[in-house]
């Protein structure tokens, strides 16, 4: 997703055509008007980027001005929390998904309007948008990971739909047909190209995949993100002016960037860094968890494995996945065949070299095609 945002803006900014210049001015104004101040204590990041950087991507459920996406709720929640970490050498990247029901400490923070928000104690991760906005989500994730996060972006349901449409749809696959009335997702067995509300339903679906948990949904989200990256590259999205303008427009209108990230030179710097990372060196991983004793519907970080993962991120060490460690509801797909999660994955260029990876860490690399596993029953 970051690659889509950064490259779209970068190519447009680089154009010298007068029409493009007018469009860029309009786009820049839209991005600036939607930007959010983080009020973080860390110093202003370098311009442009020259070393390691971290970006927090936050998906808002029940975002303001959003209508027609299910029953109205009392609050806006950060139901998708994804941390992008790019090491200083810019040769690899980690995309870390954190469950919305993860029980963590919520330290004091500063809301987007500058108001101080007191310590929130132990609560699910997804309460922070309602508690104090994007800045408080960043503060909590910084406390959890021990990383400085100077950049963040908040996206809406409508933004997810618009971006899927802008790239011409995203290929996904399932091992069985899915018909889930809760999310509205209806997909046949095998491969499909999804866009619009079907893409949103796929990303939101819980009861139709795996064991019906948020961890299963994260697996599908990772399959979608890796497919989106591959689709954007293979479909020449970045050399197609019409598609690029549609994509940049979708992002500008539906994604709120932190003020630190809304400057064109920052986005260009991110584009230069991320564009040159091979897909097989981009690891999409789930934060390791274990059950939360007081409430079986919640989880907490698994201490030992989480410490290993965060040590890699803090030390800029590449995260390598062990062979066969896919998510809770996806499996490796190859040659048009869907493999069930309990079967042995077909070796690929990525998995053959991962025998010494981090054992027990769930996820996949961006070059791996994987399929969602439908829920039983």
UniProtKB/TrEMBL annotation:
Signal peptide region: 1-20
Annotated Polar residues bias: 339-377
Region called Disordered, residue ranges: 331-377
Stated name of the protein: LytR family transcriptional attenuator
Gene3D superfamilies found in the cross-reference section: LCP protein (3.40.630.190)
Stretches assigned to the Cell envelope-related transcriptional attenuator domain: 78-232
Keywords on record: Signal
Pfam family, one: LytR_cpsA_psr
Family classification: Belongs to the LytR/CpsA/Psr (LCP) family.
């Amino acid at each position: 997703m970051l690659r889509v945002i950064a490259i779209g803006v970068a190519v447009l900014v680089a154009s010298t055509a007068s029409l493009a210049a007018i469009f860029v001015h309009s786009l820049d104004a839209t991005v600036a008007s939607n930007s959010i101040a983080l009020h973080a204590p860390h110093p202003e990041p370098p311009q442009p980027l020259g070393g390691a950087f971290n970006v927090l991507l936050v998906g808002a459920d029940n975002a303001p001005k959003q209508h027609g996406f299910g029953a109205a709720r009392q609050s806006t929640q950060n139901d998708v929390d994804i941390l992008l970490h790019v090491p200083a050498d810019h040769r690899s990247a980690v995309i870390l998904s954190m469950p919305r029901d993860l029980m963590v400490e919520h330290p004091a923070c500063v809301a987007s309007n500058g108001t101080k928000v007191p310590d929130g104690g132990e609560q699910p991760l997804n309460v922070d948008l309602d508690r104090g906005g994007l800045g408080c989500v960043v503060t909590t994730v910084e406390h959890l990971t021990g990383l400085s996060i100077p950049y963040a972006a908040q996206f809406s349901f409508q933004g997810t739909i618009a971006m899927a449409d802008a790239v011409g749809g995203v290929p996904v696959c399932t091992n069985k047909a899915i018909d889930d009335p809760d999310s509205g997702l209806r997909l046949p067995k095998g491969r499909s190209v999804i866009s619009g509300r079907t893409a949103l339903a796929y990303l939101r679906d819980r009861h139709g995949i795996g064991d019906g948990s948020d961890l299963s949904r994260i697996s599908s989200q990772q399959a979608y993100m890796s497919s989106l990256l591959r689709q954007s590259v293979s479909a020449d999205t970045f050399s197609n002016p019409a598609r690029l303008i549609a994509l940049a427009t979708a992002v500008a209108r539906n994604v709120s960037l932190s003020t630190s990230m809304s400057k064109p030179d920052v986005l260009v710097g991110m584009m230069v860094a991320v564009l040159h990372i091979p897909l097989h060196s981009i690891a999409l991983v789930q934060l390791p968890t274990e059950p939360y004793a007081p409430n079986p519907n919640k989880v907490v970080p698994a201490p030992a494995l989480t410490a290993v993962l965060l040590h890699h991120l803090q030390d800029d060490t590449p995260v390598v996945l062990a062979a066969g460690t896919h998510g809770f509801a996806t499996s490796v797909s190859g040659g048009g065949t869907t493999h069930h999660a309990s079967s042995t994955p077909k070796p690929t260029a990525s998995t053959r070299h991962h025998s010494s990876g981090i054992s027990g860490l769930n996820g996949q690399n961006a070059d791996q095609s994987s399929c969602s596993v439908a829920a039983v029953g």
